[in-house]
Specification:
alpha/beta, Rossmann fold, 8-stranded mixed beta sheet, 8 strands
């Protein structure tokens, strides 16, 4: 599995939850993951019941086997200050520009600059190595913008590289695009088994492929259980009320006539939903991408629920697949420790 995992999806599909669960799944067996947020919503902090994330990498969870999940909320202004210091050595001068409002102007007005800074910071984390030459993070997972603008967000570096044909900006944009368009990167799309999210997922995949950005898998989120077997679904779909009433009477249920109508209506609604979900599954299967499914967490997403979703990912081979890539664990070795769960910031 690629080292840079980008998670996008239509609003309301739970892409932040999926990104967090993926980070936990990939952190098993002593691996280290970095979960990156770029939209300023502090959704990661809320999921892990942590304080608001600052502009620094902070450990927020420990996965089974001692792996660690770190998180970073990338701020475009701070990223630009880092950029100015890195390429132009403008430490104090950059801070002066911030006070004058120039930094805010550049990140909100200049076309594409903000997205270049956000993707550039994430790609820097992907490439970063320690003194022993090992990657600092085995995986970097980005909670990215929604499907409707994910291609433009990731591909903006190409546009900037075309405008600035020489110099540090050109070199930075080219370096970012080498990561984003390489096998190191995979863009996953999150959907529900509903017509609009599935259609937007299909459209997003087409746009990503047209831009030559690497598409990973489709994650079907909030999958509800089927409560009826095939025979019961056929019965419910047919609205066979008399047969159901007779069955209830034979079973000794009193007042079966009064029960039949609401029972049949609920069963019919369930059967209709199952049929619609099967249609959407067929559409997703036709996209030619690997699928993963995560169940609906009806009681709300808590840190414990995130661990359950991560385990679902592992059951479907996500963690094992990544560990076995290229015949070795990415990052050059296991970092084992005590198993645990979510930790505070």
């Amino acid at each position: 599995m690629s080292r840079f995992q980008v998670v996008s999806g239509k609003g309301g599909t739970g892409k932040t939850t999926v990104a967090a669960a993926l980070a936990l799944a990939l952190a098993t067996e002593g691996r280290r993951t970095l979960l990156v947020e770029v939209e300023g919503r502090q959704g990661i902090a809320q999921l892990f019941e942590s304080d608001a994330l600052p502009y620094e990498e902070r450990r927020i969870a420990v996965a089974p086997g001692g792996g660690e999940v770190h998180a970073l909320a990338i701020d475009a202004e701070r990223a630009l200050l880092d950029y100015l210091q890195m390429f132009y050595k403008l430490g104090s001068a950059g801070r002066a520009l911030k006070k004058l409002g120039a930094i805010d102007f550049a990140t909100t007005i200049a076309p594409g600059v903000r997205d270049v800074l956000l993707t550039g910071k994430a790609c820097e984390a992907v490439r970063r190595k320690d003194k022993q030459g090992r990657f600092v993070y085995d995986y970097v997972i980005m909670d990215a913008p929604p499907t409707g603008r994910i291609t433009r967000f990731l591909n903006v570096n190409d546009e900037v590289a075309g405008l600035a044909r020489i110099g540090p900006i050109h070199n930075q944009a080219q370096a970012v695009m080498r990561v984003l368009k390489s096998p190191e990167t995979a863009v996953h799309l999150v959907t529900l088994l509903e017509e609009m999210p599935v259609q937007e997922t299909a459209d997003g995949i087409a746009e990503l492929r047209a831009a030559e950005l690497p598409v990973g898998r489709v994650v079907v989120n909030m999958v509800r259980p089927h409560l009826l077997d095939e025979d019961a679904l056929r019965t419910a779909s047919g609205g066979r009320r008399k047969e159901i009433a007779k069955t209830l009477t034979r079973a000794g249920v009193k007042g079966s006539a009064a029960l039949v109508r609401p029972l049949v209506e609920q069963a019919a609604e369930h059967a209709q939903r199952v049929g619609l979900e099967r249609e959407q599954r067929a559409v997703l299967a036709g996209l030619g991408l690997p699928l993963a499914e995560l169940p609906l967490i009806s009681e709300g997403v808590t840190p414990a629920a995130l661990n359950e979703l991560a385990e679902e990912f592992r059951k479907q081979g996500v963690g094992d697949e990544s560990a076995d890539a290229a015949g070795q664990t990415p990052g050059g070795g296991n970092r084992r420790g005590s198993a645990g769960g979510v930790v505070g910031s």
